[in-house]
Amino acid sequence: MPSDTAPRPVILTGDRTTGPLHLGHYVGSLRNRVALQATHAQYLLLADTQAMTDNAHDPERVRRNVLEVALDYLAVGIDPALSTICVQSALPALAELTLLYLNFVTVARLERNPTIKEEIQARGFGRDIPAGFLCYPVAQAADITAFKATLVPVGEDQAPLIEQTNELVRRLNRQAGRDLLPEAAALIPAIGRLPGVDGRGKMSKSRGNAVPLSASDAAIEAAVQRMYTDPDHLRASDPGRVEGNVVFTYLDAFDPDLQAVADLKAHYRRGGLGDMVLKRRLTGLLQATVTPIRERRAELARDPDLVMDILRTGSAKGRTLTEQTKREVTEGLGLFSL
After folding, report:
1. Which end of the chain is less congested by CB atoms within 10 angstroms, N or C?
2. Going by C-beta distance under 8 Å and a sequence separation of 6 or more, which residues neighbour residue 129?
3. 53-74: per-residue pLDDT in tens?
């Protein structure tokens, strides 16, 4: 743990404001953020500008979900006294740095980014790729470097974005002739992508296979009942497969009793354990996780002015910091400065 006098390591993380967050976000990042905020200088970015890269047809959706995502942050335990929550569009230095950084990367390099390639394919853009979407690794590099973050919590699929950020940092530092900006390390959680309840790909709002953090007990129970197990496990007495079994993936993510889960896996593999036993256990675990979050969220939603004050305060702090970095970068590269 850093000493009281040593500067705390800087974390930048955040989410696109395209809808309320779900259990996939909770496992992949949110609970880590709550744990890290006491030992790190943590900045959380409500990425509304980035959300526009593939939602320009529906800006109202992006605007509305700024508050929704902020509610999720606070409900899971993000403390604005420890973590600074900023709205991306309220920090103009980020857009200015993005424009500057675009001069230090090629279109070919952006198109080779594995994360971008996968996302383009998933969205079916073909060659009709919004320019903002293609360039969002550069925008993300601007976000990370503007806060001088040295640690960025991401899923494994997002690691290429951090690699590209560090490429830009090294190029900018060479151009400036000194260490103008720090490189960042990716913090990848032990359990990254949480599969959707249907077992097809990662949990996603757009795929309709997500469990939101505001889900009711009944909705959680219904979601667990939909979960994919082992199609060949027709009777409880049959041996079953654990690998690829969504219920076991969720038990690994949410059950604190690791030995009990190991015993259940062994029992399932040899036969004699029915899927409903597993699903009842998982339902209870998920309800115990979500219920306090849902109740806290509902309480916060009754006072939106308080949430907006938190966002204004955090964004003001973020604006000061990112403007300072922008000045250092422009001056370091020898650009005209007033």
Report:
1. C
2. 120
3. 889 999 999 999 999 999 999 9
- The CATH number given to whatever domain includes residue 103 is 3.40.50.620
Of the candidates 166, 197, 192, the one whose C-alpha atom is nearest the C-alpha of residue 179 is: 166
- What amino acid is encoded at 95 in this protein? A
Domain range for 317? 10-194+304-332
Domain co-membership, 310 together with 268 = no
The candidate with the shortest Cα–Cα distance to 159, out of 118, 195, 216, is 118
pLDDT for the residue 44: 98
Q: Is 149 exposed, middle or buried (0-12, 13-18, 19+ CB in 10 A)?
A: buried
Give the span between the Cα atoms of 94 and 109, in whole angstroms. 21
Query: Is 57 inside a domain boundary?
Result: yes
150 and 269 within one domain: no
Question: Shortest CA distance to 292 belongs to which of 16, 15, 28, 34?
Answer: 34
> Residue 199: inside a domain, yes or no?
no
For the ranges 2-6, 255-259, 270-274, 321-325, which has the lowest average pLDDT?
Answer: 2-6
CB of 38 closer than 8 Å to CB of 82 = yes
- Per-residue confidence band for 186, with pLDDT thresholds at 50, 70 and 90: very high
| The overall pTM is greater than 0.85 | yes
Contacts of 286 by beta carbon, 8 Å cutoff, 6+ apart: 23, 211, 220, 223, 224, 250, 254
Contacts of 89-94 spanning 24+ positions with Cβ under 8 A: 89/48, 89/49, 90/315, 90/318, 90/319, 91/146, 91/315, 91/318, 91/319, 91/322, 92/319, 93/146, 93/319, 93/322, 93/323, 93/325, 93/326, 94/49, 94/139, 94/142, 94/143, 94/146, 94/322
